[in-house]
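Hi R.,

Here's the chain you asked about this morning:
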Amino acid sequence: MRQTPGAPLGKKDEALLRRWLSQIGETSETTINVLEQCNADESMRNYYLMRASQDLVEQC
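And here is the predicted structure, written out as tokens:
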């Protein structure tokens, strides 16, 4: 069951996701879809933020 987040995606989290998606070569359409999923589904938000954080740390 999908759980709606209690608040919209924060600016820092959105910037993190945008940077990660850009680094992995995703298109603007994919970026929009990911951000929409993050604003609609708490588990998807947690997943994408975890992946972005892990992948960006590994690339440093």
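One quick note: Residues 42-59 form the longest helix (18 residues).

Cheers,
M.
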